[in-house]
Amino acid sequence: MNLANRITVARILLVPIIMFFLLIKVKFPHIRIEEFSITYNQIIAATIFIIAASTDSLDGYIARKRNLVTNLGKLLDPLADKLLVTAVLVSLVEMGKVDAWIVIVIISREWAVTGLRQIALLEGTVMAASKWGKAKTAAQITAIIALLINNFPFTFVDFPFDVIASWAAAIITVYSGIEYFVKNKHVIDFSEKA
């Protein structure tokens, strides 16, 4: 359990804390500025999410820089990312902030690509993250943050950035998933009998 893996585990442990602040049924005070309103628990959840999301690059950087890459890290890192994004997106559906179909599309892609990666590992192949995979992660995090903070500051100019970012995240997510399967179609042997 090296430093990089500890950071990854910390990201996993932050997931239930974020969900607690998003889904707790206690009346928290609101901050109001003209038409804009946000609760303190949303601000806390958004802050923790940003910290957790930023550790994704940090643990990978530390693992590579200090030569701490382990099989445990290879397993935990993508799992932590998916748990974080999935939990927050499901919470946002519960809060009525994002359409369920967008979340279903994103989660389906995430687990489909995870399955493909597992098949590749069994074949002794490591699937590297593509530029579209990285763009997908950035788009998802941007959309989630915009939704968590109630479209601040775009709400002041009546610009639905959070909605556009959600759609963009869904489209980029689907495209990057298709790209993974097209580039790695050799991994799946359809001729093999069960």
From TrEMBL:
<keyword id="KW-0594">Phospholipid biosynthesis</keyword>
<feature type="transmembrane region" description="Helical">
    <location>
        <begin position="137"/>
        <end position="157"/>
    </location>
</feature>
<keyword id="KW-0472">Membrane</keyword>
<dbReference type="InterPro" id="IPR004570">
    <property type="entry name" value="Phosphatidylglycerol_P_synth"/>
</dbReference>
<dbReference type="InterPro" id="IPR048254">
    <property type="entry name" value="CDP_ALCOHOL_P_TRANSF_CS"/>
</dbReference>
<keyword id="KW-1003">Cell membrane</keyword>
<feature type="transmembrane region" description="Helical">
    <location>
        <begin position="38"/>
        <end position="63"/>
    </location>
</feature>
<dbReference type="GO" id="GO:0006655">
    <property type="term" value="P:phosphatidylglycerol biosynthetic process"/>
</dbReference>
<dbReference type="InterPro" id="IPR000462">
    <property type="entry name" value="CDP-OH_P_trans"/>
</dbReference>
<keyword id="KW-0444">Lipid biosynthesis</keyword>
<comment type="pathway">
    <text>Phospholipid metabolism; phosphatidylglycerol biosynthesis; phosphatidylglycerol from CDP-diacylglycerol: step 1/2.</text>
</comment>
<dbReference type="Pfam" id="PF01066">
    <property type="entry name" value="CDP-OH_P_transf"/>
</dbReference>
<feature type="transmembrane region" description="Helical">
    <location>
        <begin position="6"/>
        <end position="26"/>
    </location>
</feature>
<comment type="pathway">
    <text>Lipid metabolism.</text>
</comment>
<dbReference type="InterPro" id="IPR043130">
    <property type="entry name" value="CDP-OH_PTrfase_TM_dom"/>
</dbReference>
<protein>
    <recommendedName>
        <fullName>CDP-diacylglycerol--glycerol-3-phosphate 3-phosphatidyltransferase</fullName>
        <ecNumber>2.7.8.5</ecNumber>
    </recommendedName>
</protein>
<dbReference type="InterPro" id="IPR050324">
    <property type="entry name" value="CDP-alcohol_PTase-I"/>
</dbReference>
<comment type="similarity">
    <text>Belongs to the CDP-alcohol phosphatidyltransferase class-I family.</text>
</comment>
<keyword id="KW-0443">Lipid metabolism</keyword>
<keyword id="KW-0808">Transferase</keyword>
<dbReference type="GO" id="GO:0008444">
    <property type="term" value="F:CDP-diacylglycerol-glycerol-3-phosphate 3-phosphatidyltransferase activity"/>
</dbReference>
<keyword id="KW-1208">Phospholipid metabolism</keyword>
<keyword id="KW-0812">Transmembrane</keyword>
<keyword id="KW-1133">Transmembrane helix</keyword>
<feature type="transmembrane region" description="Helical">
    <location>
        <begin position="163"/>
        <end position="182"/>
    </location>
</feature>
<dbReference type="GO" id="GO:0005886">
    <property type="term" value="C:plasma membrane"/>
</dbReference>
<comment type="function">
    <text>This protein catalyzes the committed step to the synthesis of the acidic phospholipids.</text>
</comment>
